[in-house]
Amino acid sequence: LCSQELMNDPVYRPFLLTYESKYYTDDIIRNGNIAEWQKYLGLSYEDTQYLVFESSRDDLQNLTKGKAAADSRLAFATPEFVKKHKQALLYLAYAKYLEPYMRVIPDTDSEVYFWWWDEKYEHNAGDLDYNKVKTVLTRSWNAESDDELKLRYGYQLVRLAHYSRKYQEAIDLFDQYVKPLNMRTEMYYYALSQKAGALRGLGQIEKANREFIHLF
Predict the structure, then answer these.
(1) Sign of dihedral through CA atoms 116, 201, 157, 175?
(2) Rounded to an integer, what distance in angstroms lies between the CA atom of residue 38 and that of residue 148?
(3) Region 25-34 average pLDDT
(4) What is the model's pLDDT at position 122?
(5) Alpha-carbon distance 132 to 4, whole Å?
(6) Which residues have a Cβ under 8 Å from the Cβ of 164 and sit 6 or more positions away?
(7) Statement: residue 34 has pLDDT above 70
(8) FRET label pair with 165: which of 22, 72, 84, 148, CA 20 to 30 Å apart?
(9) The whole model's pTM is what?
(10) C-beta of residue 209 within 8 angstroms of C-beta of residue 2
(11) Which contacts of 117-125 are long-range, i.e. CB under 8 A and separated by 24 or more positions?
(12) Pick from 10, 74, 11: which is nearest to 43 by CA?
């Protein structure tokens, strides 16, 4: 229940036994985060999924600078689209920069380190300049007028602190940059999972479990 890796699965695989057929078929279960982006951007689900998950950071940066994307799959990003959603593209470009590092700093002193740590990850949050990234995210949050994008920057702040093992700071950042927006969208619960993980890191297991219950 408390494993952060659960949040990487867009379909939230059930942790209790269920006989509902959708979990035992090949039917596509849509990613809630992509569905929210789809509504926000006014694109098809397929185009939204490609933009968020598959497009390159370089192409997104070129679009925000008024240049054409090299990827023909981004043909839907017309000048009008870019003008309307430039701030969202700027967010996505920075999120793509952060994503490879968004893994918890391994606790090499832990007795369980050698069997649970996944070696497939090349980087973790410790490879970033924490204060520099925090400053960029904080300034972006303050400059952004759209609450949906502010929420996403807030999520990035909480996740960065949690994965950097700055547990109390992660909780404080949630209270400062996520909670006041009073939005209960998919991204709010992504951020809540990071707060719960931070509580668990502090050894506040009962509080962490309560937040995980809210999440699920």
Answers:
(1) positive
(2) 13
(3) 74
(4) 81
(5) 25
(6) 105, 125, 126, 128, 130
(7) yes
(8) 148
(9) 0.84
(10) yes
(11) 124/163, 125/101, 125/160, 125/163, 125/164
(12) 74
Per-residue pLDDT of 73-107, as tens digits, reads 999 999 999 999 999 999 999 999 999 999 998 87
* Distance between CA atoms of residues 36 and 91, nearest Å: 15
CB-based contact 158:188 (threshold 8 Å): no
Please determine, for residue 23, whether its predicted confidence score (pLDDT) is greater than 80.
Answer: no
The 3-state DSSP class for residue 8 equals: helix
Give the amino acid at 114: F
Model confidence at 182: pLDDT above 80: yes
What local confidence, expressed as pLDDT, does residue 17 receive? 47
Q: What is the mean pLDDT of the chain?
A: 87
Q: Do residues 162 and 194 make contact, with C-beta atoms less than 8 angstroms apart?
A: yes
3-state secondary structure 97-166: HHHHHCCCCCCCCCCCHHHHCCCCCCCCHHHCCHHHHHHHHHHHHHHCCCHHHHHHHHHHHHHHHHHCCC
The position carrying tokens 């007028």 is: 145
